[in-house]
Amino acid sequence: DDRRHRHQQPRREIVAVDLTAAPHKSVSIAVILAKSKAERAALLQAIHHANDYAMHALAARLGVARLGAAGSKGWIQGDIGWVSVLHFTARPTSASRNGPQGQGVVTGKHVPCDPHIHIHDIVFNLVYCRDGKLRALDLGQLRHVKEFGSIFQARLAGLLRALIDPARVSFTGGVPQYIDKSAFIECSLPR
Question: What is the mean pLDDT of each run of 10 residues along the chain (191 residues)?
Fold first, then answer.
């Protein structure tokens, strides 16, 4: 009966979820201040590698579909797919000021973007299950998303440590000595 469905809201389908991996701000600054294309490429490669490593670790957790209504017949493991997109800056913002009654007023002037390297991992809501069927992700598995961030950060830290040339860099107060400290108010590297 069409009248029964006429007043119902359309069902919202979740096509994908967006997971974001973002290194510490100092890594974005290091990429900007890299002394050569090779150094910049090595830093970016470390970010990509850490992201891929973390996504493959998370894929085992996310690649699960429920069987039956709300998982009443259990779960089944499968494979998932995703697309990774690298961004170099934060979103552009508009300047704002306080209005006459204290409310925020957008002035329309754009504020330059902050350097903020991050990767969006768009995970499709589709699991290719071991039985050969396609099913939706069990979105309850997103509870493991913090593990993704921790794995990304730990892997990236190890890769960046491997890139450091001890003859060229010595740390004082968290800022490599070869960086012109006058360009920063505060810059510290994660430990």
Answer: 58 83 91 90 93 91 82 82 89 63 63 80 91 87 86 92 63 45 39 40
E strands, the chain, in order: 16-21, 64-66, 75-79, 82-89, 93-98, 104-111, 115-124, 127-129, 134-135, 171-172, 175-176
3-state secondary structure the chain: CHHHHHCCCCCCCCCEEEEEECCCHHHHHHHHCCCCHHHHHHHHHHHHHHHHHHHHHHHHHHCEEECCHHHCCCEEEEECCEEEEEEEECCCEEEEEECCCCCEEEEEEEECCCEEEEEEEEEECCEEECCCCEECCCHHHHHHHHHHHHHHHHHHHHHHHHHCCCCCCCEECCEECCCCHHHCCCCCCCC
Q: How far apart are CA 30 and CA 26, in angstroms?
A: 6
Q: Which two tokens stand for residue 17?
A: 């979820």
Phi/psi at 5 (nearest 5 deg)?
-95, -10
Place of tokens 């009966």: 1
Are 118 and 21 in contact by the 8 Å Cβ rule? The answer is yes
Instruction: Name the one residue in this structure whose structure tokens are 């039985």.
Output: 131
Closest CA to 45 of 154, 163, 153: 163
